[in-house]
Design a protein that fits this description.
Radius of gyration: 20 Å
Oligomer: single chain
Shape: globular
Order of helices and strands: EHHHHEHEHEEEHEHEEEEE
C-alpha cells in the first residue's frame, strides 16, 4: 500500500511583503485607535482565550489583515492564489517529495510536470464555483485513483492544482460550511488532482484537505488506492479559467 501523509495546523512561511517597521507601525496604529473601553475582557474571556490558543488567535488576526483590515461579514467567496512562488512539495510535505514528471507509467523524474495548466493560470478562486465531483458511474461504489484521474481529464473541468490547494489551506478558516459536511456519516476528503506528486518511494499521490474533530487537516494519498463517494475532487467549470 502506498503512503498516506497527513498534517494538521502548522505555521506557514511568511510571504515577505511587509517590513518589520511596517508591521510595527500597523500594530501601533491598531493599539492606539482601538476603542478598548467598549471591550468586555472579563465577559468575553478574551485574554484567557488568546493566551490559550495563541496560534489560533494569530490566524484570525491574519485573516483580518488579509481582508484589508476589514471584518468579514457573511461567507467569503474569493481567495487569492500567490503565484510568486511555485508550490514546493519538499517544503510543504517533506524531503524527497516532488511534482511528478513524465508519463504515469514512468519513474516520475523526467519530462513535463503533471499539472493542470489551466489551474496554474488562476490568480484567485471563487469558492462558490468549486464543484465536488466523485466521477463514480451508476452502480459503482468506488473507482481506482488513476481511473478517477483519467475521468476528470476527460470531463474537461479544471482540476485544482497544488498551488490552489495551498491557497485554500492557508485560508482554511474561510472555507465554506459545505466542505465540512460528512458523506454518509463519514469524513469527506476533498482532493486537488491538478498536481500529481511523487513520493520519495516513487508513488503517484495527490493532496486533499478535510474537516475532522473540529479542525482542518490535509493528506497525501496514493493514486493506487480506491476512491469512494466520500473522496470527491475539487474542480471548476472550464470557463472559469
Amino acid at each position: 500500500m502506498g503512503p498516506i501523509v497527513s498534517g494538521h495546523l502548522r505555521m506557514e512561511t511568511a510571504m515577505g511583503k511587509i517590513t518589520l517597521d511596517q508591521s510595527h507601525a500597523i500594530m501601533a496604529a491598531l493599539a492606539t485607535n482601538t476603542d478598548w473601553s467598549t471591550i468586555d475582557f472579563d465577559g468575553a474571556g478574551l485574554q484567557d482565550r488568546v493566551m490559550r490558543d495563541m496560534a489560533g488567535a494569530g490566524q484570525q488576526f491574519t485573516t483580518f489583515l488579509r481582508n484589508g483590515a476589514r471584518v468579514i461579514v457573511g461567507e467569503p467567496r474569493i481567495i487569492p492564489i500567490d503565484r510568486s512562488k511555485p508550490f514546493n512539495p519538499a517544503e510543504f510535505i517533506g524531503a524527497g517529495w516532488t511534482i511528478w514528471r513524465g508519463p504515469a507509467d514512468g519513474d516520475g523524474l523526467s519530462g513535463d510536470e503533471e499539472q493542470d495548466l489551466r489551474s496554474l493560470a488562476l490568480a484567485q478562486i471563487d469558492l462558490s464555483a468549486i464543484v465536488l465531483k466523485s466521477t463514480l458511474k451508476p452502480g459503482e461504489t468506488a473507482v481506482g485513483g488513476e481511473e478517477k484521474l483519467k475521468r476528470l481529464k476527460v470531463s474537461g473541468e479544471i482540476r485544482l492544482d497544488a498551488g490552489a490547494f495551498k491557497a485554500l489551506w492557508d485560508n482554511r478558516e474561510l472555507l465554506p460550511a459545505r466542505f465540512k459536511e460528512k458523506t454518509n456519516g463519514n469524513t469527506t476528503y476533498i482532493y486537488c488532482d491538478g498536481t500529481v506528486l511523487r513520493s520519495p518511494r516513487g508513488f503517484r499521490c495527490v493532496l486533499c484537505f478535510y474537516f475532522f474533530d473540529g479542525a482542518w487537516s490535509w493528506r497525501c494519498r496514493w493514486l493506487g488506492d480506491d476512491w469512494g463517494v466520500g473522496r470527491p475532487s475539487a474542480v471548476l467549470a472550464s470557463n472559469q479559467a
